[in-house]
Design brief:
Blueprint (H helix, E strand, L loop, with lengths): L4 E6 L2 E6 L10 H16 L5 E6 L10 H7 L7 H10 L6 E5 L2 E3 L1 H4 L6 E5 L3 E3 L13 H9 L1 H10 L3 E2 H7 L4 E3 L4 H14 L2 H11 L4 H19 L2 H11 L10
Parallel strand pairs: 2-3, 3-4, 4-6, 5-7, 6-9
Antiparallel strand pairs: 1-2, 7-8
Length: 256
C-alpha cells in the first residue's frame, strides 16, 4: 500500500484518503496501485458496506504527477497502473461516496464519473485539460460525458479544458451537491452512514440496475482510451506541453 494513502474502516464505512497534500494529491504509479488494492479489498470485505473516497489537505486530486509520468513514458507498462485503477473503480459492486474539498483535475475528475454520490465543497474547482496537455480523454470520459451533458458541452469540457466551479459541476450532473466548505466532512460522513444503514444487498443490486452504461462497452472504451493516451504521451505535442508544465510556462503549439 502506498505511503500516500490512508485507509480506515469504521461503522461499516471504508474511508480511503489520498494523502499527498503538498503535491495537491497528484497521483503516482505507486498511488494508483495502492488505490486499486484498497478498493478491491473494501469491495470484498463483508464488514464494509460503503466506500468513502476523499483526501487530506485542501485539494482532492490534481491529476497525474507529471514528473512521474514523464519518467515512465518509455516504459511499456506506463499506463497499466492507471488502467487497472479505472477498471476497478468502474466495476465495484459497493457504493462509492466521493468527497471533493478543492481542486480536481484530469483523472481527479474522471474518477468521479464512476462514483455513486459525489459531494463537493463550494470552494472546489474542476478541470479536464487533456487537449491542453496534448493528450486525449481517459477514465471513460469520452463515453460518459457526452451521454451525461451532450456532445457540445462534452467537447467544451474535454477539449477546451477550462476550469469550472462546483456549482457548474452540479448543474451538469458530474456531482450530486455542493455544500459549505466547513460542513463538507461532517455531511459526507453522515451521507455515507445513511447508505451503510440501508439493506446492503438491495443497495448493491440497485446500483447495478441503475447503471445506464453497459459494463462491457465501458471496459472497451477504458482500454481504447488508455491505448490512445499512451500513444499521445510519446507525441511531440504532449512532450511540449509536459515540458512547458514543468518549466512553468505556456506550451507553444505553433510549429505543429
Amino acid at each position: 500500500m502506498s505511503e500516500h494513502l490512508n485507509v480506515t474502516i469504521r461503522d461499516r464505512i471504508c474511508q480511503i484518503l489520498l494523502n499527498r497534500p503538498d503535491k495537491k494529491n497528484a497521483l503516482t504509479m505507486a498511488m494508483y496501485e495502492g488505490l486499486t488494492q484498497a478498493l478491491k479489498d473494501a469491495d470484498a470485505n463483508p464488514e464494509v458496506r460503503v466506500i468513502l473516497l476523499g483526501s487530506t489537505g485542501d485539494s482532492f486530486c490534481s491529476g497525474n504527477d507529471i514528473g512521474d509520468f514523464i519518467g515512465a513514458i518509455n516504459s511499456p507498462n506506463a499506463v497499466q497502473a492507471p488502467l487497472q485503477f479505472l477498471q476497478t473503480i468502474s466495476s465495484l459492486a459497493k457504493p462509492i461516496v466521493a468527497v471533493v474539498p478543492g481542486v480536481a483535475v484530469g483523472i481527479g475528475v474522471t474518477m468521479l464519473l464512476h462514483c455513486d454520490l459525489v459531494i463537493a465543497s463550494d470552494q472546489a474547482s474542476f478541470q479536464l485539460p487533456f487537449a491542453r496537455l496534448g493528450l486525449v480523454p481517459e477514465g471513460g470520459a469520452s463515453l460518459i460525458l457526452p451521454q451525461l451533458v451532450g456532445h457540445r458541452r462534452a467537447f467544451e469540457l474535454l477539449v477546451m479544458g477550462e476550469s469550472f466551479s462546483a456549482t457548474t459541476a452540479s448543474d451538469l450532473g458530474i456531482i450530486n451537491r455542493v455544500v459549505m466548505h466547513n460542513s463538507l466532512q461532517d455531511l459526507s460522513i453522515l451521507e455515507a452512514g445513511k447508505l451503510a444503514a440501508l439493506a446492503p444487498d438491495a443497495v448493491r443490486q440497485s446500483k447495478a440496475m441503475i447503471r445506464n452504461i453497459s459494463q462491457s462497452q465501458l471496459q472497451e472504451v477504458l482500454l481504447a482510451e488508455v491505448e490512445q493516451f499512451a500513444a499521445r504521451l510519446k507525441s511531440a505535442e504532449a512532450m511540449e506541453a509536459l515540458q512547458a508544465f514543468m518549466q512553468k510556462r505556456e506550451p507553444d503549439f505553433s510549429r505543429f
